[in-house]
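Much of the work behind modern protein science is quiet bookkeeping, done one molecule at a time. The protein below has been through that process, and both of its lines are reproduced in full.
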Amino acid sequence: MKQKIIIGSRGSELALWQANFVKTALEMKNKNVSVEIRIIKTKGDKILGVALSKIGDKSLFTKELEVELLNKRIDLAVHSLKDLQTDIPKGLKLAAVTKRHNVQDVLIARKKGITIFNLPDGATIATGSLRRKCQLLNIRPDLNLVELRGNVPSRIKKFLESD
């Protein structure tokens, strides 16, 4: 009989890709394991109309996953390391990190060949990341930065529907 392992994951496309990546790796390493992915909605998934920097909760995308782990309803949680708190809650630990994938960001623009450096003065860029805002303003202080939240497909849709 196979041992069942339950992975907790957020329901976004990215989170599910990551969880399935880990699921496949676990099942390939041990044929006596079956892995199930359980989707868990987090506070960050539910509060969409507010900038992340204004919410101020360090565990916005992880708290519910941590509760499920501590209550033994899931065996492990898969999540982007960049979103984890630096202080892991008592009773939990960072047990594994997968091989790092491409870390480059992407600029989606209306014209082909546009880069950060050849955008017009005062161009508007939408992002939900405080870190990205700081990086962008460091290299282009003239940019107009606006808040944009959501998973990747919804952000692209909002961009395409915007002016």
In short: Residues 18 and 101 are 11 Å apart (CA to CA). Strands lie at 3-9, 33-39, 76-77, 124-127, 144-147.
